[in-house]
Amino acid sequence: MYTQDTYRQAVDYIKSKLSFTPEALIILGSGLGNIADELEDTVYITYKEIPHFKISTAPGHTGQLIAGRLAGRNVLCMQGRLHIYEGYKPIDVAFPVRVASELGATRLVLTCACGGVNTDYSVGDLVMLKDYINMTHPGPLVGMDVSDFDTRFIDMSYAFDRDYFSLAKAKARKLNISLGTGVYYYMPGPQLETPAEIRAIRTLGGDLVGMSVVHEVIMARRLGMRVAGFALVTNMAAGILDAPLTEEEIFVEGHKARERFGGLLKAFIGDMS
Ligand code: HPA
User: Fold this and answer.
1) Ligand 1 contacts CB of residue 206 (under 6 A)
2) Atom 6 of ligand 1, residue of closest alpha carbon
3) CA 167 to chain centre
4) Are the CB atoms for 203 and 180 separated by under 8 Å?
5) How far apart are CA 190 and CA 43, in angstroms?
6) CA-CA 20 to 30 A from 146: which of 38, 103, 124, 179?
7) What is the pLDDT along the chain (273 residues), one digit of tens a residue?
8) Which atom of ligand 1 is nearest to the CA of 211?
9) With the C-alpha atoms ordered 159, 78, 48, 30, is the resulting torsion angle positive or negative?
10) At what angle do helices 214-222 and 90-102 cross, to 10 degrees?
11) End-to-end distance of the chain based on CA atoms, in angstroms?
């Protein structure tokens, strides 16, 4: 059980290493960790050394918090995200978001690898998240001490900030990068989906499928942070192409998209309100 004191200990530790107040927390998804190389004036803090932080065990998730400047903005960057499939609880996965908020960050920028469910997309496409569907897992606010907050029933009508869509679209246009929008369907994993699950997800309105994002967004919205979500389609979801899926393609596509994704993120973050 996390108490206000638990958060405070993590916040105080990170604060002792920082020379600025972070404006945003950026979370880097599978295969996208090297976007952190764009940061300047960096300070590295491993998850291991931060009180109460869980460690990343997913492949390609280094497990360090990097504080630095990106496009002139002070940011904290999670190089390695936490997932439910690692055995963590939703509140563990969302813990860093609350810590970042208590450090002063008012924005959350999420990146993730995902499977393309909507056949309008192709492998390698960048897609801005406009909404999510989570019908498979309780969120991080379940069981939360209500005295900590003024309400349990937070509004999720605008989970992803609408002003951020127009900004990201404008930046993408300028950089000649194609950027779609779509609904993210959360599945807890770690097994990939069956073709029947993917057909059901499409029927339910999912454009993309992935194993992260939602717990972080819920916590951020609980704390009044503005949220932007960027997804890279690393593979078409199960059954869409008549071929088995491999973990390797996620990393290959992440690597290939590195410059394009990094460029868009940098342009977006530089001007985000
Ligand atoms: N399913 C779930 N998560 C994913 C996928 C997928 O096909 N690709 C990348 N992350």
Assistant:
1) no
2) 115
3) 18
4) no
5) 31
6) 103
7) 788 899 999 999 999 999 999 999 999 987 777 778 889 999 999 999 999 999 888 776 689 999 999 999 999 999 988 999 999 999 999 999 999 999 999 999 999 999 999 999 999 999 999 999 999 889 999 877 766 666 788 999 999 999 999 999 999 999 999 999 999 999 999 999 999 999 999 999 999 999 999 999 999 999 999 999 999 999 999 999 988 888 888 888 888 888 899 999 999 999 999
8) 3
9) positive
10) 40
11) 34
- SS3 of 259, please? helix
Q: Is 111 in the pocket of ligand 1 (CB under 6 A)?
A: no
| Distance of alpha carbon 79 from alpha carbon 29, whole angstroms | 8
Query: Which residue type does 255 have?
Result: H
Measure Cα distances from 43 to 17, 66, 109, 195 in Å.
8, 6, 19, 43
CA 234, CA 248: separation in Å to the nearest integer?
10
The protein residue whose alpha carbon is closest to atom 2 in ligand 1 is: 210
Please confirm whether the linkage preceding 195 is cis (ω < 30° from 0). no
pTM: 0.95
Ligand 1 center from residue 112 Cα (angstroms): 9
Is 237 touching ligand 1 by the criterion CB < 6 Å?
A: yes
Give the residue among 74, 12, 76 at the shortest CA–CA distance from 44: 76
Whose CA is closest to 160, among 226, 78, 215? 226
Instruction: Provide the token pair at 86.
Output: 């690692």
CA–CA separation, 202 and 119 (whole Å) = 10
CA–CA distances in Å: residue 6 to residues 30, 152, 156, 195: 28, 20, 26, 42
Cα 84 to Cα 20: distance, rounded to the nearest angstrom: 31
Q: Maximum CA pair distance of the chain?
A: 52
Q: Which of 233, 183, 178 is nearest to 207 (CA)?
A: 183
